[in-house]
Amino acid sequence: MPELPEVETIRRDLEQYILNLRIKKVTAISSKVLRTSLKNLQKKLLNTHITAITRRGKLLIFSLHDEKHHLLIHLKMTGQLIYRTKKFLIAGGHSLGQRIGGLPDAYTRLILTFQNGAELFLNDMRLFAYAHIVDHPTLEKTLSAFGPEPLSSDFTKNYLEIILKKRQTSIKAILLNQTLIAGIGNIYADEVCFAAGIRPDRKASTIKKDGVARLHEAIITILPLAITKRGTTFNSYVDGTGKKGNFVSHLQVYGHGGKPCPRCGTTLQKKKVAGRGTVICPQCQK
DNA sequence: CCTTGTGTTCTCCG
DNA sequence: CCGGAGAACACAAG
């Protein structure tokens, strides 16, 4: 599940490699991931280049040289974006040009080929990921639906307090709500709640000022740490070059249901909160 | 059956 | 009965 730290890792990786590379070929293997026609995708991408890569929540925004259009890519649950140099793709030529690194593979849905022979693969096992081409007004409309970036100055303790105060739903539902805070998914929602000592199923409006402060601190500490560790590879996430992230060994509760709490040793409970599998330490989280 | 991000649809309550 | 919040469902494949 690529969440903010994973998508940011991919963004930073790709920014190093694909900016200003002329796109020579656009290959759609599965049109299901296209939110526009292949024809339109080719028309907008061929013989131009990407001038900037930005991120909003879990959404990647590739801005095109025409200064009018943007390629949007969302990886949803199992999507991958992997860059391969030509050298990597043809390396080892000893086996009749067979590609190493296994790309494209059975889950490759879209390929961008650059003038230098490098390729960008959009892979997705479950076909939830998408690629779209939008103009400025559409982009603005899309972005306006997102809540503040948790690592920007817009995301203050005061803002968090305000959005929690009047809500009757669980704190976890709020952390997962992209219109309230952008970029947190199931992994980091559980990690943040554990770090803050707050039960994810607790009603948001009951969280007092000190709890809000701990939640805020947990969010702005854990997300950057996960970015420095290049994200969490639990199932299918890989970075922009196909490598796994290293944050999984730092996870305190996610995926640890039934195991002892790393802080107090109490058995971590698993239950469904906000429709998602959720791990809670009944001792440390109140 | 379970897993999950998000868009859509349904339900409930004031 | 209306509006909006929040919950439930749909999607997909292993």
Summarize the structure.
With 286 residues, this protein is an alpha+beta fold. The protein has 8 helices and 10 strands.
Features:
alpha+beta; 4-stranded antiparallel beta sheet; 10 strands; globular; DNA-binding
Q: Which structural class do you get from the secondary structure elements? A: alpha+beta
If you compute it from the alpha carbons, what radius of gyration comes out, rounded to the nearest whole angstrom?
20 Å
Kindly report the average pLDDT value. Answer: 92
| Main β-sheet, spatial strand arrangement | 1-6-7-5
First-last Cα distance: 27 Å
Which term fits the overall shape? globular
Query: What is the helix/strand order?
Result: HEHEEEEHEEEHHHHHEE
Report the biggest beta sheet as strand number plus sense, adding barrel if it closes: 4 strands, antiparallel
Helix fraction by DSSP (H/I, runs of at least 4)? 25-40%
- The share of residues in extended strands comes to 15-25%
Number of strand elements? 10
Q: How many individual helices?
A: 8
Unreliable stretches: 92-100
What would you note in describing this structure?
This protein is of the alpha+beta class and 286 residues long. Helices cover 29% and strands 21% of the residues. The strands form three sheets. A four-stranded antiparallel β-sheet has the order 1-6-7-5. The chain has a four-stranded antiparallel β-sheet with strand order 2-3-4-8, with helices on both faces. A two-stranded antiparallel ribbon has the order 9-10. Strand 9 (269-273) and strand 10 form a beta hairpin. The longest helix is centred in the C-terminal third of the chain and has 20 residues, at 209-228. The model is unreliable at 92-100 (pLDDT under 50). It binds a DNA duplex (14 and 14 nucleotides) through residues 1-3, 58, 74-78, 124-128, 167-169, 173, 176, 178, 185-186, 235, 274-277.
